[in-house]
Fold Endoglucanase.
Amino acid sequence: MASTSTTTLYLHFLLLMLTFCSFHHQLSFAFTSQDYHEALEKSILFFEGQRSGKLPSNQKLTWRGDSGLSDGSSYHVDLIGGYYDAGDNLKFGLPMAFTTTLLAWSVIEFGSSMQDQIDNARAAIRWSTDYLLKAATTTPDTLYVQVGEPNMDHRCWERPEDMDTPRNVYKVSAQNPGSDVAAETAAALAASSLVFRDTDPSYSSKLLQAAIQVFNFADRYRGSYSDSLNSVVCPFYCSYSGYHDELLWGASWIYRASGISSYKQFIQSNGHTLGADDDGYTFSWDDKRPGTKILLSKEFLEKDSEEFQLYKAHADNYICSLVPGSPGFQAQYTPGGILYKGSESNLQYVTSTSFLLLIYAKYLNTNGGAVSCGTSKITEQNLIKLAKKQVDYILGDNPTKMSYMVGFGEKYPKHIHHRGSSLPSIRVQPQQISCNNGFQYLHSGSPNPNVLVGAIVGGPDSSDNFSDDRNNYQQSEPATYINAPFVGALAFFSGQESS
């Protein structure tokens, strides 16, 4: 009798599993390299929607117009151009520089897979580096780090083309240092110099010289820009991790771009005091530690340089923290499988982490290495698989079956927290919409009239729930630094043969 019962239970179990697998298969998303390439194209196009300044004639997101054309003029400096960081009309130097570094790193590592998008990727980088060059080289021992008064800007809901809030300019200097934002700017300029080395050597050289100049400034006058500028940058882009991580990151990028031995010596001499021994498990516009360790581990993997062995060990620790079941695992994932770090703009951590996983997989593959997690060995394929799960989730393979990239797939967020996207285009309604009159569009239940193609929003909560609500900025606001590392991740998968 027991035997029959066991057999019946077993048959029930098999039937249940077959039903589940069949159901799951119907719901699953098998993205092809063409799908990833489409997403890549859109993820780069998004940056056009964030442009400040005089738009070029080949602008494809035509609902946007010129804006911020007098930025810096009252301070007798040209700060026209660059990017608005998110859904507002402010230009913050720290996230803009980090965005630029990651766009450049995307091209450096995976540009060969970008095909017809490589020129668009370079244009997205150049839009920022042209601005950062002006910010970094206009005045000696000065870096302009912000345009716009945040509290005033956030009290208005208006198109960038209509801005009438104060365009205050903020800077760091020898008297008011900002090593974090200056060293990140140095990293952005140095990484970008590698992007243009073959296509525009003179521009590349200009970027590298500026990187060296601004890094020397960051190192000579040490201090956090949060202390110097306080309420202007906090709580918006307060440097919570301090400036040590940026100094090491900036030096690493200049060394990678130039090979100048004094930067290698800087890394060796200052690594311990600048956080090389600290295991940071979050890679973001604020904290560069995991990125630096993976960047420098390349030196160890390629040249077996003893002095960089420490970085390989710490890079492994970072990877182990992400791999479920491995010793050292400490990440949190939602039931649907997405990495979860925080309730506000969580997808920024997902895109940056996925990008680092793929870069490390590439470095390991090139040099026949593996990740050591205690006695376990994690292969490059494990890293690629984990990154793919994250990328696919963002593109729609998730419990809500929603793509978190605007304009990709059949179902995506329609009410994103973004001024230019949510207000009628200046092409449709040329007359000015004033500061307060824009709020009717913020609170409207209608979809945004202008599709900010390629924008990745903040994303779902820890239970995979998402509220497509313009007022819920934690989930519905896009940002340049969410998209930037995703460009590299999508380039990687668009270059893979479809499975």
